[in-house]
Specification:
The complex is a heterodimer. Chain A is α+β, with helices and mostly antiparallel strands. Chain A has 3 domains: 7-94, Butyryl-Coa Dehydrogenase, subunit A, domain 1; 129-239, Butyryl-CoA Dehydrogenase, subunit A, domain 2, CATH 2.40.110.10; 252-396, Butyryl-CoA Dehydrogenase, subunit A, domain 3 (Up-down Bundle), CATH 1.20.140. Chain A is 45% helix and 13% strand. In chain A, strands 2-3-7-6 form a 4-stranded antiparallel beta sheet, with no helix packed on it. In chain A, strands 1-4-5 form a 3-stranded mixed beta sheet. A two-stranded antiparallel ribbon of chain A has the order 8-9. The longest helix of chain A is centred in the C-terminal third of the chain and has 29 residues, at 285-313. The longest helix of chain B is centred in the middle third of the chain and has 36 residues, at 230-265. Chain B has a 4-stranded mixed beta sheet with strand order 1-4-5-8, covered by helices on one side. In chain B, strands 2-3-7-6 form a 4-stranded antiparallel beta sheet, with no helix packed on it. In chain B, strands 9-10 form a two-stranded antiparallel sheet. Classes of the chains: A alpha+beta, B alpha+beta. Chains A and B meet through helix 2, helix 8, helix 9, helix 10 and helix 12 of A and helix 7, helix 8, helix 9 and helix 12 of B.
Amino acid sequence: MDTAFSSEDLKFQSDVREFISNNYPKELKDSIGSKRKTGKELSRDDLMSWHKILGKHNGWSAPGWPKQYGGAEFSPTQKYIFEQECARAECQYIMPFGVNMVGPVIYTFGNDEQKAKHLPGILSGDVFWCQGYSEPGSGSDLASLKTSAVKEGDHYIVNGQKTWTTLAQYADWIFCLVRTNPEAAKPQQGISFLLIDMKTPGITVRPIKLMDGSHEVNETWFDNVKVPVENLIGQENMGWTYAKFLLAHERSGIAGVARSKKALERIKQIASAEMSYGEPLIQDPAFKSKIANAELELNSLEYTELRTLAKDSAGKGPGPESSLLKIKGTDIQQMVTELAMEAVGYYANPHLGTTLSNEYVGPDYATNLSGSYFNFRKASIYGGSNEIQRNIIAKMVLGL
Amino acid sequence: MNFDYTEEQTLLENMVTSFVRDDYDWDTRCSIVKTEEGWKEENWKKFAELGLLGVPFDEDHGGLGGEATDIMIVMEQFGKGLVVEPYMPSIILAGGLISKLGSADQKNSIIPEIISGDRRYVFAYAEPQSRFDLFDVKCSATLDGDNYTINGFKSVVFGAGMATHLIISARTEGDQRSKSGITLFLVDIKSDGITLQNYPTIDEYRASEVVIENLTVSKENILGELHNSYEAIEEQVDLSTIAICSEAVGILQVLKDSTNDYCKNRKQFGQPISANQAIQHRLVDMMIEYEQAKSILYMAITADLSNPDERRKAASAAKARIGKAIKFVGENAIQLHGGMGVVDEYMISHFFKRATMIGILFGNVDFHMKRYTDLTQSNIQSINEEDGINLS
């Protein structure tokens, strides 16, 4: 057993650290920081600037992609270090839809034209992708989806509604699961994987406001949308296979250990500034024991992730164990957002910390912590709800 | 970075695994705990033959020079067999104190005898009022010429009935709860002035109350420095804590796997009870607790245990987190076994009982949560007003 990084890994770590400190724009940090605090929406530029900088540096915008497609092809350990360093420096995270989701599907199952057309834009960050999976009647039971694609000549005609389309308001393209064979014996067998240009006539995006007031997700409507047949990935009616492949990729890295660690550090600072029983809150036995408890969960999860990583490095890909990382990772994120809200006491109340005449109230650090708590209830629901993850483990790991 | 065993460690694991499988099957174990002695001395000889008694001792004294990982390997497999022979009390805890504090002469004469299986030391430290505080020592030793006279009472000394010798912590100076003034003494268990009250524990191990009345010990039999043993005691108890965490992880694996199998085989309403989602999700949560327990054990094993603060944090983090896993996995294992869970006849309750008693040994969840919290949450940092919380 050896959890020390090799000298090459340590060199890599210092390279990443140095690159971030020399290249992460100060203005971006300020702009994102102040918007997050005040609950203002991040612009497309806020979300993509760092991606674009990384895209010009040895494929670092796509840590897991093979070199032949322009990616960094990091080892699992390097990926872990990279993620740790980005979290440490509180860099804006890379949008997952292009790099982690559709990208690997395109280079694994797409044809040469599709690779040439789409991969460079994902890598550079010039093209913004969104995900068209869930529908109003198809959440956890994704295979029941109804959005239809009917082939007419050299086009598919797409009709239906997708929902929870994250950041569709910025998207240039959407990857969609559509039903191409309503007669198939099993629902999974009639599904295809289509790439659709968001500028195609017939697509309407409507915002869905979440309970913290944020606009992250949308409804996306398709009304006789004409999609060229060359936008089909792989074979018709084989979309479910590609979707499952994508979901396994989505779950790796979902634990968010490094980001939760950073947040916990921050809560300790807040709890040192806040007072309780006439003393800093950090000295309140009940509160500090909650922090310690979150730390223990996080320490355990970090080693669970490292063990998974060691397995990956030995050539065994991400398996159903990644469901465990999703469950515990999101549990901890929710624990942490709750502790942060709890730490600021009454100042959890003012919505976005601003008065009706736009003046800030309360300590700066308190702004929108309650919003973040409410927003993060999503974490145990998205990406396959934590109940679905338990079903996956029950079937795939425990053989029940 | 890797979590692999070396070739030697794989051999060690295979050896202990085959011992448990071939010499310590469930029926054999049940017959051993029913005997008057409550253990089997032949097994101790077998451990000596296999080299297990030398695992943590250095090579100069005939040991294997094993590290935390090697001890984990042995303890995890012993956990799976609920091995009652006093390996941790004698080899890890008492053996660790002798290795750490012994003079050259003491080590040369004692350690080879331990490794050969001819002597077994156990450490008598707890007292009725001390609970988990290792520094709370009333038992007194007063100097009278060249000898000390010891009087006191030691509680729940595991393996004392199987031991040939004791290490006794006694106060030679200071108040009852002072960290200085504690001295260790090496004594033959048959000495005049030592009376043992032996008993079986709820989980069928053996422990003793040790009454010490006017016990005479020569100055030469002090282990370590006069008045100054507390830090070494704390260190060796931390390392033993990590060892029993390893035992617990072995037990948790049995609890989790057996419950899984049971639920697949037990039929009600015409189907296995594992077909019910309520049962499936409980089994998944047990599996997650087991994996988290194993992970924090790995964290402790790979921590820098030579650094006192890192060692304290590692031991308390592991014991607190694993203590929670013991309760969750243990209680649910019994629940999901239904009536079979609560009977003495079926093995699952025995694993639950042992795991629960490990949860208490060297400090329970509350004790180690508090210790961990005190070690980690006291530093107050200044706040940078510019940073927000950014989780996503």
